[in-house]
Specification:
The chain contains 3 helices and 4 strands, in the order βαβαββα. By secondary structure, it is of the alpha/beta class. β2, α2 (44-47) and β3 (51-55) form a beta-alpha-beta unit.
Length: 105
């Protein structure tokens, strides 16, 4: 996770280049857009990041406790696929422990 704009210095980091380098080695990239959103225009798709998090109370001027998390559909799909596999494995394990002929206690 990296900030797109550094809080202490205000430096705008080269997110596209960082993302390309990270993806070459198989790393996911999550951006903290707290200092960016509402301050400068952003295009999450062109950055190529895997997730982009923003709070609502900073530059957007919203109330505390709200925000947004944009996640790439490939990651959402992979997570859903993994959870589906785990569900079926657990269901199969639980089914093995049951005798379909024996009455319930």
């Amino acid at each position: 996770m990296i900030s797109e704009i550094a809080y202490a210095t205000g430096q705008l980091l080269p997110v596209r280049e960082i993302t390309r380098a990270a993806h070459r080695v198989g790393a996911a990239v999550v951006i903290d857009g707290a200092q960016t959103v509402g301050h400068i225009p952003i295009d999450v798709h062109s950055l190529g990041v895997d997730a982009y998090a923003i709070p609502g109370q900073k530059w957007l001027g919203g109330p505390r406790g709200i925000g947004a998390l944009l996640i790439d559909w490939l990651i959402v799909g992979a997570a859903f696929y993994a959870l589906t596999i785990v569900f079926f494995i657990v269901s199969a394990v639980l089914a093995v422990d049951r005798d379909p002929i024996a009455p319930e206690p």
